């Protein structure tokens, strides 16, 4: 469990870094604005999950280390700004590890609170992607879940695998790594090979 | 009560259909994006009401049938896409029945939790319109409540009638139908005769 | 305490006025739209704070006087529209008093619920600024916290002073006025002398 707590802090830090870098692409905001966006990116998904589940106290409200992790992420984003922008692949990897981790943690938390499998999978996906959605709303971007490459669907798939193995009583740690790896794997393949889900309707533009 | 539960599932399905159709008008998103928007449209208002009232567990978190209703709505929206776009009047009717139903259900729920009449009316209106507001925020549209024709005000009026009849001890079922009909009636007349509330200030553009 | 309750109602009314005036600058919405924006501006920050802290019932849900204060604010905004637009400095002062008051009230509330100092300061700042952030999201403006002059940082600074004096057991009322004055003072100086925080990275535009 101790190692998972470390993972969560690390995931929070990664999300704050990615939030800070995205925020800064918009009209050069000041330190507060960037930190604020990093903060919302990092805690948005988990907070929404806990609010929807009625699970109090919310993680970062109770445990100030999550806030320190966010401040550290913002600071790192500032110091290594140029490097991080060059290492876009590294950043992408951080985000991928972050969503894989948060999906499984969120799914487990919902299950532990008595949620059914469908709700648990949704809560896992929300944990992973809703911070980014809130970040995109605040910065007036098109929300990341509407981007071309598979993103939230990877989280849902990983959550589904976790739930399947969970009901087959597979060892929890093995399940954690297998399902997390599936999410990261799908996401990496999706970006590498430009994979996307089918459009809802191809003839949209014409019918309007 | 059983029939009301069916109504709620149906209302959820209608909102998901309308959400999916609106979402798809924006730059042809994929299946996940459209389903996600349908989901937020359908559960946004009720979830916000329950969060504000501190009423847990939230409906769709507890009862997976609401999620099935949303998936069914998205699927129907895809299959009957062309037809639904032609039958805009049918769609409008679905939305109208949806907001009428959700307003009364939301008002009743708030009353049952001890809310006063003003708060109960606001909660009823929130149940009906906030899903659409969230949908519009996510898709960067001007929120529906700022559109020209009377929308949320119809919900508030119906909620007010419900509360009035409630305090006069009118039979609950009769009250349900009367107040719901008032909401639907106002909304239909508003669209048919292009009725709108007075502007806040007519001279806005000039004073700025 | 009685006088603080009056202050809170007054602060709510001020925020509703500022929300109504901002809303009306956007494409002349109707009375409902303007009242709705005033409402969200006034109760958004406190509601989010209470939801994050799991502190129920939420103020305005329990106490209808807050809703009356908002309606009064919207009405005042309509009646004195031209005057208020001319007296931009008066309006600015109202907003400044509002954020100073809400920051301290929010910080105190979080402390009273057992939050640590960092969380309490964040909750105080959220109480003050998140209503305006929600207003800006709804009206598609750039959120106020990203504006040039110091805004939310003034709230955080005042909350920090409050917490410092709180842990030194300074008289609560004295602390209330001192910390509130610091927020208002910073904000006034920031606007008067055009003070802003340093940019996150000066070279943003070039690196992208």
UniProtKB/TrEMBL annotation, chains A, B, C:
Domain of life of the native organism: Bacteria
Name used for this protein in its record: Membrane protein
A Gene Ontology term for the protein's cellular component: plasma membrane
Family classification: Belongs to the UPF0126 family.
Keywords on record: Cell membrane, Membrane, Transmembrane, Transmembrane helix
Membrane topology (UniProt): Multi-pass membrane protein
Protein source organism: Flavobacterium rivuli WB 3.3-2 = DSM 21788
Classification via InterPro entries: Gly_transporter (IPR005115)
Any matching Pfam family: Gly_transporter
Residue ranges of domain Glycine transporter in the record: 6-81, 93-165
Signal sequence interval, chain numbering: none
Transmembrane segments: 6-24, 31-52, 64-84, 91-112, 118-138, 150-170, 176-195
Subcellular location: Cell membrane
């Amino acid at each position: 469990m101790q190692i998972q707590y470390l993972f969560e802090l690390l995931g929070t830090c990664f999300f704050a870094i990615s939030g800070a870098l995205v925020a800064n692409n918009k009209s050069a905001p000041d330190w507060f604005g960037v930190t604020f966006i990093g903060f919302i990116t990092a805690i948005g998904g988990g907070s929404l999950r806990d609010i929807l589940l009625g699970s109090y106290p919310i993680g970062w409200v109770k445990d100030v280390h999550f806030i320190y992790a966010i401040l550290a992420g913002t600071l790192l984003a500032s110091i290594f700004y140029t490097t991080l922008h060059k290492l876009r692949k590294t950043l992408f990897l951080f985000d991928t590890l972050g969503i894989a981790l948060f999906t499984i943690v969120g799914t487990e938390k919902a299950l532990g609170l008595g949620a059914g499998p469908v709700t648990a999978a949704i809560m896992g996906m929300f944990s992973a992607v809703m911070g980014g959605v809130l970040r995109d709303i605040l910065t007036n971007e098109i929300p990341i879940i509407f981007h071309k490459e598979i993103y939230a669907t990877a989280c849902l798939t990983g959550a589904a695998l976790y739930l399947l193995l969970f009901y087959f009583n597979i060892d929890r740690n093995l399940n954690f790594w297998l399902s997390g790896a599936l999410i990261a794997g799908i996401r990496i393949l999706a970006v590498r090979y430009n994979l996307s889900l089918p459009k809802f309707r191809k003839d949209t533009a014409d019918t309007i």
